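User: Some background: our group keeps a shared notebook of sequences we're curious about, and every so often someone picks one and asks for a predicted structure to add to the entry. Today it's my turn. The entry only has the sequence so far, pasted here. Could you supply the structure so I can complete it?
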Amino acid sequence: MNNAIYLYKNPLIFIPMIAMFVIIFGIVFRSLREIDIFPAGSRLVIALCVTTLAMYGMNQTLIRAVANQYTAMGVTMLFGLAVLLLAAWIGLTVKTRKRLRRSQKDDEERK
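Assistant: Of course. Here's the predicted structure to add to the notebook entry:
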């Protein structure tokens, strides 16, 4: 019940929870597929049930810790994206200037 109240107060916590759900589901489903104990049709249902129970058992402390890690990772990725865009823009600007100068020189030589 405390988890539900915490999630209601902090709606952005759903993003890391969805990521954790996908990661846990992927691991469980792949494991069930490789074990070959269960029939093919029931693997999806079992993986969903196991993942749901795992998510239900997580407490607020773990959710906060994961959310903090995802926040830090998101900020780092945004910073890296900004640097990459800046580097690409500078590179394209320099390349365009060189081409413009080269075409101006070619035009002057033709005259």
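Suggested note for the entry: The two ends are 82 Å apart (CA to CA). Residues 17 and 89 are 35 Å apart (CA to CA).
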